[in-house]
Amino acid sequence: MSGCRVNVDAPEVAIREIRIGSITGFEGTAGQLVQCARAGKLRENKRTFSQCMGCSSGNAFCQLSMIQDAAMVNHAPVGCAGDFFAFNFVYRVGQMERKLPPVMGRYFSTNIEEKDTIFGAVQKLEATIREAYARVKPKAIFVTTSCASGIIGDDVESVTDRLSEELGIPVVACFCEGFKSKIWTTGFDSAYHAIVRKIVKPPRRKTNKINIINFWGSDVFTDLLGPLGYEPEYIVPFSTVEKLEHIAEAAATIQICPTLGSYLGAALEQVYGVPEIKAPLAYGLAGTDAWLRELGKVLGKAAEVESIIAAEKEKILPQLEAYRAKLQGKSAYVTAGAAHGHALLALLRELGLQVQGAAIFHHDPVYDNGDPRSDMLAHTVKTYGDIPNYNVCNKQAFELVNILHRVRPDLLIARHGGMTLWGAKLGIPTLLIGDEHLGFGYQGLLRYAERILETLDNREFVTNLAKHSTMPYTRWWLDQDPYTFLGGCAHGNVD
Ligand code: SF4
């Protein structure tokens, strides 16, 4: 399967199911999943019961809502704004970490009501955009759409085009209706499509900046890129409209997770010729070696990179061996989004843990660049061997609890807040790391190992919690096959 051709003339980007064949249901081993995807035989195992779903609109919002001088208009019923507070919380915490002035998120809702679904809501949209502009004077306004605005067929693009002219700033439509895709990471693509179409300007010159497509992780790239003569440009959260206008001038683009930045990396390369680093992620020794060598090749700094690899490895290997000895015989289970989850599997194997399985929120058989070197799961399986109990599971807690109840790992690693309680309720020490850069590179192995050991040392808390917790799932369910509702013969995916 190849990647996608980016078309910035189209108002919307196709959803991931159509564009790159992504799925949300699979059960087998990681190796079987990789083999299926490579053979072009991946198919969705549809769940006959589903407990919850994410929403593309939320993922689009998570990228656009922390641009420092932009405002957001969510063209939706007010219920879709229920997670505004969470984004504002992350925004405020990130401001403190980055020593930015404290500012509230500038988020507005058009509050589509029942009568608007009959008569249309474009007048409300226009009024809300004007109100947002009058109140906070943003440098750009992003309009995120919703199921309701999509179903009633509001012509959002003509409103945003008209208001752009009237207000003299980019007013940009981002089409991310939740009902259109089961893969909520489609919302990242919608946000990036909006940025590349309407914000990014053609390059005036090349700079020494390197785009880092990330969420809100700590700054680990200044130290890494500085010796090579480059500076990180973290995008999109905590960027500014002006900085985003010039990301096509960067020397390269780095993904901290291709599940996040797949579309933006490919779009910048295809539309503006900014090379994307196409390699396994820098998690674990082999991944970091491969990633750094590709970076060196793209930047024309191969010799310097070889020196960095040798020096850094020499520095960390004794401590790594010490951590491996401490972690020997320990087992772990991972629940996380796709590529970052694959990277955590590599990292755990590198630290010598036995990985008992993973519940990963979706699977992209290919990324938008179409390059198999970016397939972190394939790299992990090839480097460290197969991983059993690999479940593609879009946060279905009933499956996760059933599996955890069976495998009883020493440690649960969870990437998303709502998932940690399930391990804790079962008395399993559970580690959540919000900083997605913590495990990056050689030093990241040591940082992560330290956090794992702290978590394993603090077992008493979850032991007590489990004693006083109840589970919503009955004995009947825990005795069933965890994949009972996963659409028939899940292994039919693999020859
Ligand atoms: S856009 Fe649709 S799926 Fe998303 S929060 Fe609103 S109603 Fe729910």
TrEMBL record:
TM region(s), chain numbering: none
Recorded GO MF terms: oxidoreductase activity
Source organism superkingdom: Bacteria
Gene3D superfamilies in UniProt: Nitrogenase molybdenum iron protein domain
A family per Pfam: Oxidored_nitro
InterPro entries: Nase/OxRdtase_comp1, NifE-like
Residues in Nitrogenase/oxidoreductase component domain copies: 61-456
Record protein name field: Nitrogenase
